[in-house]
Specification:
Elements: H1 15-29, H2 35-46, H3 53-63, H4 69-81, E1 86-88, E2 96-98, E3 104-109, E4 115-119, E5 144-147, H5 150-153, H6 157-160
Helix pairs in contact: 1-2, 2-3, 3-4
This protein binds zinc ion (2 copies).
């Protein structure tokens, strides 16, 4: 558990409250809460699709045309290092980000690769039946439910032509 996660971020928390949390966490970590960082954080709070850094860059560029991809990468790394944002499992080929840094699970669409949040409370607690080999220390379990999202599961008539 990250030491900075003192306040619980609720998925339905309004943006001003989240921004206040973000500013407090930045201050506690000694990070200047710059306009760039706030814009980046807002873009992530507003994103419902667990965007990649590149997707986030495209969105932030509309607000700050002079921002570079390198700056976005750098700030994302800082946010992640300080537990300000969360990263979704890495094995989907690219880093996917989200502002929801509370433990939760995901529904992954195998067709469009969109990810949706599944609250931790929606899944039974997972326990191991026996100790793991190699002295591996489990910190958390993340469940991924794979399937088709509503859009992709819909009859194909609208998408074929
Ligand atoms: Zn889909
Ligand atoms: Zn999520």
């Amino acid at each position: 558990m990250h030491p900075l996660r003192r306040v619980r971020i609720q998925p339905d928390m309004d943006f001003e409250k989240r921004l206040e949390w973000f500013r407090n966490e930045c201050a506690a970590a000694g990070l200047p809460c710059t306009h760039q960082r706030e814009v980046l954080y807002r873009a992530l709070v507003e994103a419902k699709d667990h965007p990649s850094p590149e997707m986030l860059y495209e969105r932030v560029k509309r607000k700050i045309p002079s921002i570079s991809l390198g700056t976005v990468y750098r700030n994302i790394k800082i946010f992640l290092d300080h537990g300000l944002i969360g990263e979704v499992s890495l094995h989907h080929g690219s880093l996917r980000l989200e502002a929801n840094n509370e433990p939760h699970h995901h529904l992954v669409c195998r067709h469009c690769r969109k990810m949706f949040d599944l609250p931790a409370a929606g899944v039974h607690a997972i326990r191991l039946r026996r100790a793991l080999p190699e002295g591996f220390q489990v910190e958390r379990f993340v469940v991924e439910a794979h399937g088709l999202c509503q859009e992709c599961a819909a009859p194909k008539k609208r998408r074929s032509n």
